[in-house]
Structure formats: structure tokens, C-alpha cells
Amino acid sequence: MAWNDEFECMPLEQMQKFQLAKLKETVNWVIERVPFYRKKFAEAGIKADDLKSLADISKLPFTVKNDLRDNYPFGLCAVPMNEVVRIHCSSGTTGKPITGPYTADDLDQWAECMARDLWAASLRKGDIVQNAYGMGLFTGGLGFHQGASKIGCAVVPTSSGMTERQIMLMKDFGTTALFCTPSYALTIAERAEEMGMPIKEMPLRVGCFGAEPWSEAMRDEIEQKMGITAMNTYGLTELGGPGMAFECEARKGLHINEDHFLVEIIDPVTFEPVAEGQRGEMVLTSIQRRAMPLIRFRTKDITTLTRERCACGRTLVRMDRITGRTDDMLIINGVNVFPSQIESLLSEIDEVVLQYLLIVRKKRHLDELVIRVEGKKEVFDAGAGRVAVVERKISEHIKGVAGLGATVELVEPKGLKRSEGKAVRVVDERPK
Ligand code: AMP
Ligand code: ZN
Questions:
Q1: Which of 108, 123, 135, 212 has its CA 20 to 30 Å from the CA of residue 31?
Q2: Nearest ligand 1 atom, CA 232
Q3: Positions in the chain whose pLDDT score sits under 50
Q4: Residue with the nearest Cα to atom 12 of ligand 1?
Q5: Distance (Å, rounded) from C-alpha 67 to C-alpha 333?
Q6: pLDDT at 432
Q7: pLDDT of res. 93
Q8: Domains within the chain, CATH numbers bracketed
Q9: How far is CA 318 from the centre of its chain?
Q10: 248 CA distance to ligand 1 centroid (A)?
Q11: Strand partners of residue 155
């Protein structure tokens, strides 16, 4: 049973009818209330009544991150400020943030989406959940908080950081579920082992991880180190935060809350829709939000969709885990490289742990990729010769599989800075 069988298991035809009605409502809503959209739609010569089917969404103009920046802070807000009850901001640290205003009803919708998400991850009343997502402007903390509260779990809002205290509380409270970024989960697991308090020996049984890209290899590592089931959850500030898409017990992709979000996958170069199953950039339209609904927002996140029947019984379309972002893609001497690709190649090397940093810099006229990755203790115990052998093994593996030349620097255990939130994996030192 899902949290909300009516919508999560709705037959496709019925869902699409619902979506079209909500889409039209939202298009009218923004045309009437947001000058930015009124102008854009007038220029494109489009009205809500021109939307005869969902496919007609392709006639509507895109919204991009810069539109949100240009209209900072509330230019895209479609309601008067006295109807706004919460304002979040994006986690980005450079320049002005992206603002996310909510009406009271928007907050209820968000809690509903998060409850579906956490219910699918097996959370129930009686669970003690430690919420180690950053609590504050970032949508992660409060988003998870509201969803777990709606289910009736006992929520411990630790926020991120103070890792030793997290571990102490986890043990003392008998925490059964953990919410945080996957990189912070690994930081917690490692620290707990150092403290002689392995998480495996605690009652923790499930983790709901997201807010940053992670691979199946990283999932395996977390599950194995913590002795838990690790579930993936996806969302973004612009669309209201986490809870947009979530994994069910089948763990074959993330179900998208389609009654709230219309999803398209486009070719990021031609902007044409790609066929089901093909990779492309995800474009999202919020069709029920009222404070700041976005029409055809280009997420820059790359994924695929499937409508194949899911074993769990939900009919909601599924997206694959995000494999990269168009703006995270590094172009190194003309070769397109995603950090996630390098992560999965590193995971195939037994002598390393999955803590790494990619540094790209100019060496004369060429780009140079330096991969700093932590080696296991036994490699360093065996001496410099062994370290050099492992470094060569890694660079040959990456060259062989990805055709990419890289300088590998093996770093001693714990030599790289640990993440408490979203991990920093890339430093691009090339002149812009
Ligand atoms: P923010 O708005 O700061 O929360 O960042 C949202 C972005 O984080 C998304 O556009 C994705 O790039 C990334 N993200 C969030 N959840 C996931 C996830 N489960 N897997 C991969 N990337 C994610
Ligand atoms: Zn499912």
C-alpha cells in the first residue's frame, strides 16, 4: 500500500487528464499574476486554451535559473507577500540565492509529497528518525522534517554537523532512520568506527539520502558500512525542495509525484523531446504550487524515464538516478567527463576508499586532470613503491575504460576533507 493510493496508483489516462487540467490552471495563474510570464507567453503567442493535450507543453517557453536570478527576490512570486508563509533559498553559495516562497497550501503539498517518499522508504509511526540534513534556509532539513512528522515518526532535528554528537544520540535514542546527504552518511559511518561505536551494531535500519549525485557503488558502501537499506530521494529548491521523486522498495528508479510535477526529458542542445528511455535533461513544471509555480524549468540534471510497470504497484513514472548535470560536465581536452563516471571507475579499485577530489588545471596549453583519491591504510603501510603501483593501476584503469588521461595522487587515509552536507568533488582551476 502506498501513502496515497489514489494518486500514486492512478491509471495513466486519468492522471494525464488531471495533469492537463492542472497545467492549464497554472498557466492561467502565472499569466494573470507574474509580469515575467505574461510577457513571455505574449511573445510566444500562447494562451492556456491552446493546450489541447499534454504534448502541447512543448509550445511553452522554458524557464532557466537565470530567470530566477534576474527576478530576485520575489519577481516570480505569484501571490501577495501576505499569503507567503515560508521562504527557503537554494544551497548555492555564490552570488544571490534562488528564493523559494510557499503559501500554506504549498507547504501542505510538500509535506504530502515527502510523506509519500518516506512511506515508500518504509518509515512508519514508531520510527525514530534523525534528520541530519542542514536545517535552515536549505529545503532539505524542513522538507524531511515535515514529511516524517506527517507520518507520525519521532523526529530528532539534529541538522548536519557535530558528527560525534550525532553518533551518540543515534545510539542513546535507538534511532531507526537517518536522513542526510550520502556523503555525510559515509562521514558518520567512518567516525563511528573510529569511536568504536559501529553503526552496524545500532538499531538504525534505513537511510533516506539525496541532495547530491551518488552512485550505486556509494550506495553499496553505505549499506555495507552501516548495515542499513539506503534509499534515494530527489528534489530541488526551484520546484519546492525534496520529495519530487523517491524510490520504492523495488529500487528500480525514482517515482515522480506526477500529480504535482509534469516531467519532460529533452535534448539539451536541440531542446527536442527524447524518446522514453533515452538520456537527456529533465524539465519540470509544477502544476499545483501557487506562490512560485515554474513553467518548464530546465533542471540541468541528466536522467532517463520509464513507464514500465513497477513491482510496487505505483503507476507514477520513474526516473533513473541522476548521472550528472549538464553544468557539472567537465570538458577535459575536448572529452566530456562526468564526476559520477570517475566515481564508478574508482569504486572498481580495491585499494581505495570512495573519497576523492577532481582537480582540473591548465598545463601549458592542455587541460590536466588530477584525481586525488584516498588509499587504504595497507597500501601506505606497504611503502612508497606500493603507492606508486596503485596510482598507476588507477590511471591505467581510467585510461582503458574512459579513454581519459589523468594524474592520480593517492592520499593517505582521512587525508581529504569530509563532507557534512553536499560534497565538493570538483575544483576547476582553469582560467575562465
Ligand atoms: P538544491 O536546490 O540546492 O537542493 O539542489 C538541487 C540539486 O541537487 C538538483 O538539481 C540535483 O542536481 C541535486 N540533487 C538533489 N537530489 C539528488 C539526488 N537524489 N541525486 C542526484 N542529485 C541530486
Ligand atoms: Zn515502485
A1: 108
A2: 19
A3: none
A4: 301
A5: 31
A6: 76
A7: 53
A8: 1-326 (3.40.50.12780), 330-428 (3.30.300.30)
A9: 14
A10: 18
A11: 129
Element (H, E) at 408: strand 407-411
> Measured in angstroms, how far is the CA atom of residue 234 from the centroid of ligand 2?
15
Q: Which ligand is nearest to the CA of 208?
A: 1
The verdict on pTM exceeding 0.90 is: yes
Q: How far away, in angstroms, is 311 Cα from ligand 2 center?
A: 6
Tell how far the Cα of 302 is from the centroid of ligand 1, in angstroms: 11
**For residues 218 and 212, is the Cβ–Cβ distance under 8 A?**
no
**Nearest-CA residue for atom 10 of ligand 1:** 236
Cell numbers found for residue 235: 528534489
Provide the angle, in degrees to the nearest 10, between the axes of the packed helices 182-194 and 163-173.
80
281-326 pLDDT tens trace: 999 999 999 999 999 999 999 999 999 999 999 999 999 999 788 8
pLDDT at residue 83, rounded to an integer: 98
For 211-239, the pLDDT digits (tens) are: 998 999 999 999 999 999 999 999 999 99
Quote the cell numbers at residue 412. 593517505
Residue 46 CB neighbour total at 10 angstroms: 17
Q: Whose CA is nearest to atom 21 of ligand 1?
A: 213
Check if 103 has its Cβ closer than 6 Å to any atom of ligand 1.
no
Confidence at residue 336, expressed as pLDDT on a 0 to 100 scale: 80
Question: How much is the pLDDT for 335?
Answer: 80
> 212: Cβ below 6 Å to ligand 1?
yes
